[in-house]
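Lab notebook page, bench 4
Experiment: in silico fold of construct C2
Operator: M.H.
Input chain length: 185 residues
Purpose: comparison with the prior construct
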Amino acid sequence: MRTLQSQIALVTGASSGIGEAIARQLAAQGCKMILLARSEPALHQLATQLRREHAVQVDVLAADLAQPDCGPVIQQTLEARGLQVDILINNAGLGTYGPFETLSPQTEQELIAVNIAAMVSLSHAVIPGMLSRASGAILNLASTSAYQPCAFMAVYAASKAFVLSFSEALWVEYRERGIHVAALC
């Protein structure tokens, strides 16, 4: 069995829900963690728990993935801290529901920025290092909505279709080069 003790995982949307659950599971296996979300207090609380319960290194990075330059800024921060990412969990996401014409155009653009642009940007940031080590893993959180258009969730479902398609394409590109890519639906 491959050990995770020497690995560093970056989990986006780690302050609650699926992201928090994934962070807890990885930490329980001895993986070093980089927790990323907007809610810095929640991240620090989780980091304290993970350090105490699993004696693992945990770094906290508060960031808003809706910002257009989030990938390069996060990459610079990680480099400044001397952290390399072995496992990327692109979990952060937004969802909206309602008749399309009633939804805020700004919120829909933020959804696209977080669900699509940030995932692509963070993948760009970590893949070169993974390739240089011929090792790495990326898990992108999609949805069963990725498989069909969804009325009243048009932008969300379309964003998750992008996540699935992007993940499948990267899987083909990198499967022979040591990087495992998967989408969770």
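Observations: The first strand starts at residue 8 and ends at 12. The helical segments are 17-28, 40-54, 70-80, 105-133, 154-174.
Next step: discuss at group meeting.
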